[in-house]
Amino acid sequence: MAKINREDIHIISRHSNWLEISIKNTLNQDVYNDKDAWYKFLKLFFISLGVGFTTAGIIFFFAYNWADLHKFIKIGLIEALIIIIIGTILVSKFQPLIKNILLTGASVIVGVLFAVFGQIYQTGANAYDFFLGWTLFIALWVLVSNFAPLWLVFITLINTTLILYAEQVAQNWSNLFLFTLLFGINTILLILALAGKKFSSEIKIPKWFTNTLSIASITFCTIGICLGIFDDYQADFYLLIIPASLLYGLGIWYGLKIKSGFYLSIIPFSIIIITSALLLRLSDDFGMLLLICLFIIVSVTSVIANLFKLQKKWIN
């Protein structure tokens, strides 16, 4: 049985003779956070904040004292810090969540190590190979930890590596092909995350993680289709529009199935942007711009109104 929520309690109280004291006790027990829940949240929050500030402090330390440090000290300090963090994770009896937070901090420091190494030996620390090396060297940690924030860092590095590779090496790649590739990779990762969440109870994937992947996938898709519209419909355009149409339909179906307004909002908004780009491609005179403005106002209002209707239907 699903856990009762605030809306359920309000609906029951309006249509029954449930005593006020019983409602209050139920809210305190099943809805409101108690002292232990707040303690757990603040503990994890301050640990995450401490790891983040420590990592930022390390970065600023090297940036401020760069000229006064010997190259051995620069690299040695970072390597020693990574070894200490990994050693602490392996030998300590911390909770798995705390170890994963420390591992995420260590993964960011790996990037600092590559940046320092590149600056010392002038290897081109801002090139795609910097992010590629960073991605490869934390891949094992990502797979072992199965920690959503670390996976998000890993996926961000993959996207960054591909974008820089297209700019610096694969200059024959069109922008449309690049965004099609990014859309495909992020969509595959999203499908794997949703499938793993459904078919395995041991895999705990937070909702914010799949929502972030969905936003990234739809963003790349929207940009790619708009580029294809303004680039006279190249061959890569059809490579994107066909699977995008199918996945948009599946996304609407999935949003209705799980009663989630998230997918039922970002997909229509993407379609509105694409339709506006198509209208602008047909003409860019004053009349068309006015029509596009009216279309956006009416369509966005319609989407929001339908979302409110669906939400009310689901609640009742």
UniProtKB/TrEMBL annotation:
**Which intervals of the chain form a coiled coil?**
none
Give the signal peptide range.
none
TM spans, by residue?
44-66, 72-94, 101-121, 176-196, 208-230, 236-255, 262-280, 286-308
Keywords, in A-Z order: Membrane, Transmembrane, Transmembrane helix
Superkingdom, taxonomy of origin: Bacteria
The record's listing under Pfam families reads:
DUF2157 (PF09925)
Stretches assigned to the DUF2157 domain = 43-151
Protein name according to UniProt: DUF2157 domain-containing protein
**Organism encoding this protein:** Bizionia argentinensis JUB59
